[in-house]
Amino acid sequence: MLSRKSSSTTFPSTVNVLRADYDSPSDLQKAFTGQDVVISLITVTAVDDQNKFIDAAVAAGVKRFLPSEFAVNTADPRARTIAPPCDAKYATVNYLKSKEKEMSWTSFVTGPFFDWGITSGFLAFYIANRSATIYDNGTTIFSATNMNTIALAIVKSLKDPSATKNQYVYISGFQTSQKQILEAAEKITGEKWTVEHVTVKDLVAGGTEKLQKGEFFPGLVDLLRGATYDTRQIGDFTDVGLWNERLGLPEDDFEKSVRAALDGKVA
């Protein structure tokens, strides 16, 4: 685990934490030396730092780099138009492509983290007060994946690295919609949830306005939701080709996943 020297974040004693100055190429190279793979989970607010990581990884002899991608399909220009901050992630993959003679890469696109998306409210379901914000009619289909399945996909891809070399890998625990999630939530809780209806157009407009005001994170959340719930269903990855079967991933259980999330757990 790599962490900034200035970070106050604590980790379990079983985790080997390497502290580094992200602005120091020698620090990063030292941290990456002896590693076969670097998995970047850096937040989108600092995604531009990834080029430093890539250069240091190349210098350290790392074989494979997994950029901080996940979530929406940033290779799709429609998603980047809705959520311009994703341009930086797309640029990172293009930078990796320029380094393919020295180091390979794999970019995972997973849709929203389903279990976390419900427990955190990202998917616009609010457990504590049994309410939800439904965008348009709530029937837009999108791909979503539980966190454990994402981790398993990464592990399986590294066991056969040639299969996923230098390409986007799309996975999906299941395809669902807000309407289906709401129906499952009401069935599981035995309660009728309060619903507010908002258009995706207004959602994106609001997110854009927040970005312009300097409210980066709230604005980004709105825009990522907009890309997920866009009525063109650009959040559904079935048309671009899923890797679930090739990676040998088990199918996520939709109702079990909703139930676990409502209990504040990962599926």
Task: Describe this entry's structure for a reader.
- This protein is of the alpha/beta class.
- It has 11 helices and 11 strands.
- It has a 4-stranded parallel sheet, covered by helices on one side. It has a 3-stranded mixed sheet with strand order 6-7-11. The chain has a two-stranded parallel sheet with strand order 1-2.
- α1 (25-32) crosses α2 and α8 (200-212) runs antiparallel to α9 (216-229).
Major sheet attributes: 4 strands, parallel
Q: Compute the gyration radius: what is it?
A: 19 Å
Note the beta-strand portion.
Answer: 5-15%
CATH topology: the name is Rossmann fold
Please indicate the count of domains: 1
Structural class: alpha/beta
Mean pLDDT: 92
Runs in which pLDDT lies below 50 for 5 or more consecutive residues are none
Total number of helices: 11
* Name of the top-level CATH class: Alpha Beta
What's the total count of β strands?
11
The CATH architecture can be named as: 3-Layer(aba) Sandwich
Strand order of the largest sheet: 3-4-5-9
CA-CA gap between termini: 24 Å
Shape: globular
Percent range of helical residues = 40-55%
CATH superfamily: NAD(P)-binding Rossmann-like Domain
Which descriptors apply to this entry?
267 residues; Rossmann fold; 11 helices; globular; alpha/beta; 4-stranded parallel β-sheet
List the helices and strands and how they pair.
Layout lengths: L1 E3 L13 E3 L4 H8 L4 E3 L10 H11 L3 E3 L10 H6 L4 H11 L6 E6 L4 H6 L5 E2 L4 E5 L6 E3 L2 H13 L7 E4 L3 E3 L1 H12 L4 E5 L1 H13 L3 H14 L14 H4 L6 H9 L5
Helix pairs in contact: 1-2, 7-11, 8-9
